[in-house]
Amino acid sequence: MNNRIIKICNRGIFLGLLILVFFLPLVLNFRLADTFDLAKVTLFRMVVIALGLFWLVKILKSTEIKLTHSPLNLPAVCFVLVGVLATVFSINPRLSFWGLYKYYSWGFSSVVGYVLLYFVVANNLGKDSLKKLFLFAVLAGGIVAFYGICQYKGVEIFSRMPKAPGARIWSTLGNANYLGAFLIMVFPLGLGTLLLTKSRLWRLVLAGVLGSFFICLLITLSRGAWLGFAGSLLLFAVVLRKSISKKLLRLSGLILILLLLSVALIFSFMEGGKSQQGLKVFSRISSIVDLADPGIVARVSSWGSSLEMVQKHPLLGTGLDTYYLVFPSYRELSYLHSSGKNITAGYAHNELLQAVTTTGLLGVAAYLWFWFVFFYIGWKKCRSSAQQEEKIILTSILASGLALLIQNQFSFSVLTTSAYFWLFAGILVGGTGEPKVKRFKINLNTWLRSVLVMVAVVGSLFLMIKAIVPYHADLIYEDGLCYLKGKNRKMAVERVEKAISLNPYVERYNMEIGGICKELAFSSKSQEERKHWLNRAEESFQRNVDSYPEQPYNYLNMGTCYMWQAQMLGWDTVGKAIESFRKALRIDPYFIDAWDFLGRVYGWQGKFNLGIVCYKRALMLTPRDPALHYRLGVMYADSGNVEEAIAQWEETLKLNPNHEKAKKYLELVKKALSGEENHSSK
Predict the structure, then answer these.
(1) Closest by alpha carbon to 180, among 217, 143, 147?
(2) How do residues 380-393 score in pLDDT, each as one tens digit?
(3) pLDDT higher at 613 or 679
(4) What separation in angstroms does the CA of 639 have from each of 609, 644, 649, 672?
(5) Cα–Cα dist 283/272, whole Å
């Protein structure tokens, strides 16, 4: 009986790994507001919990613990322990535990999942399963690449997916950089699988798949991924140049020719006889060394901000996945100019800086330790392996890891690529070479083992239910947005509030319901009804302030709510609005919208000089903003300085010739001045 259960557990583990490898990059759900990442993280959590359950039941039924001994085990455990400390002492422990909405990859729950996945694979996956696992990963990559190419050509499979023919593509990953990172991880697996395949038909199929990877990678225009891809190919060449047969070398040359032909296919995307995408690729490549490129300026600026964060929080950082909260306090002016006034950074765009800012020097030490041992073990096994097949598998894993490592120095890991990496690390330890296994006997009677199995099953079901709650909440939230599109605002409020009751700590939910309540207040006919809706808006914005006091946008929303109350209800909340905007500016002095709204409030109070100071300060930060020039002109006009008002409106029209309000006011003022001159002459 026990042997049968152990076999079922082994099959369950392998099936779970196949599901994870194949479906994780593919899964998405248009019924979610977070279409891409929440579907993936929910699948990841459910599968990893199931894998952990199968492994635990297998241990209990076999009466012994088998642990593969490896130098990678200790840094993996240390990384989790540092994650525990960084979460407990985080500036926002709840956010650190679950991870940032629409990202999740650096949340503690994800980190624990990665390490558990590593140990499950290292201790349960046999060598005979590796080829099938690689093949499933390559097939998933082929589907992702094919869909990406279809997107580029304007052939959209899903009706609810935005069309972007000729633009950067995202396929099922949701972002061009995420897509590029995934492709450079699966390309070495595809290349290794091709080298190991003996069937000519499969070689042709795999060569075609690799060509689709390469085409799709090029049209992502992801520079970090290109660098990672180049690094992985170089590693392949260095490791295998003297280790594989001449026949395989010729096959590798054929693959290279096919890749070059796939580059030529890029130029088949013709528009007016000229390949626009080809020009984009070459200009993008040349921009890698262009230090004035806005993307590079923004990254370098955020890296400078990250180093300042480390100085303030050196030991354990600010907490896992809290970079988004802390960054506005350290944002530099160069970041604002290169990215735009309303853009902030969710991640450091450099994995080392991400680790050190959110987990401190202890976290980055564990992170570097793990990477170093990963490559050391892989290289050592490659050098010592006498089997060509195993050497190709090891090289594929190392090349995939190196590609991700290089890419992550200019971007950041996402859930799919992180899960793949930790899975590959487990394969490196337990699926290659001759792993050393330590055995520990468990002396438990049958009754107690059965009780522990039941506890494990119940505990796993409880964790799965908890893992699916954010998914359920987002389904309801998206349902509310559908009601909002249909102008049924009251039903939208009901659905969004239901989502908040399930997951009250998502900023977007609370911001959305605050905006809906404002619209309902504007359309209300009675004062009592307006009061009701504006109070509910205030409650929703206050929840965000209480949950995320480090985020300046929450104080901006709070201040605008106080402005609505002053406008629609006549309440004396203008002072509260001013204080909220000032709080936002104390956090982020470069927050343009906060300067804008603060200037408006001073204008309402008749404090035009203070309003003019606010708009001048905003224009010092972003001098080519036509909206700010227009509002400064209004402020000058209200203060009686007509000449300055005219100058600002003329500047507005220089920057935006279609600004109707500036045209209207300028015309009215000039007519008025002309009438006064005529009257004076008479």
Answers:
(1) 217
(2) 988 887 788 888 89
(3) 613
(4) 8, 10, 15, 16
(5) 19
| Least trusted range by pLDDT, from 163-172, 201-210, 261-270, 580-589 | 261-270
Structure tokens at 125: 């996956």
Asked if the model's pLDDT at residue 276 lies above 60, the reply is no
Cβ proximity of 79 and 108 under 8 Å: no
Please identify which residue in the block is written with the tokens 């195993």.
390
What is the pLDDT at residue 236? 86
Crossing angle of the two packed helices 200-220 and 223-240, in degrees rounded to 10: 140
> What number is the average pLDDT over the span 79-97?
95
> Are 584 and 541 a contacting pair, CB within 8 Å?
no
Q: Give the model's confidence band at 100: pLDDT under 50 very low, under 70 low, under 90 confident, else very high.
A: very high
Residue 466 phi/psi, 5-degree rounding, is -65, -35
SS3 54: helix
The percentage of the chain sitting over the pLDDT mark of 90, rounded to a whole number, equals 62
Which pLDDT belongs to residue 263?
59
- CA diameter of the chain: 113
Report the alpha-carbon angle 296-297-301, nearest 5.
115
Which stretch of DSSP H or E encloses residue 371?
helix 351-384
Q: Is the dihedral of CA 558, 559, 560, 563 positive or negative?
A: positive
Q: Which stretch of 234-238, 508-512, 647-651 has the lowest confidence by average pLDDT? A: 234-238
What is the average pLDDT across 178-200?
A: 90
What is the SS3 assignment for 442-501? CCCCHHHHHHHHHHHHHHHHHHHHHHHHHHHHHHHHHHHHHHHHCCCHHHHHHHHHHHHH
Report, as an integer, the average pLDDT of 172-192. Answer: 93
Amino acid at 315: L
DSSP string, 72-135: THHHHHHHHHHHHHHHHTSSSHHHHHH--TTT-TTSHHHHHHHHHHHHHHHHH--GGGHHHHHH
**Which superfamily does 594-682 belong to?**
Tetratricopeptide repeat domain (1.25.40.10)
List the chain domain ranges.
63-441, 594-682
- Report the 10 Å Cβ neighbour count for 451: 13
Length of the chain: 682
Using DSSP's 3-state secondary structure scheme, residue 270 falls into coil
| pLDDT tens digits for range 101-138 | 999 999 999 999 999 999 999 999 887 888 899 999 99
The alpha carbon of 459 is separated from its chain's Cα centroid by a whole number of angstroms, namely 30
CB atoms within 10 A of CB 37: 24
Looking at residues 502-520, what average pLDDT do you find? 93
Scanning the structure block, which residue is given the tokens 């050391």?
376
Q: What's the CA gap between 392 and 389, in Å, rounded?
A: 5
* Residue listed under structure tokens 């007016």: 272
Asked if 422 and 114 count as a contact pair (C-beta separation under 8 A), the reply is yes
| % helix, strand, coil for the chain, step of 5 | 75, 0, 25
User: Any residues with CB less than 8 A from the CB of 655 and at least 6 apart, and which?
Assistant: 624, 625, 626, 629
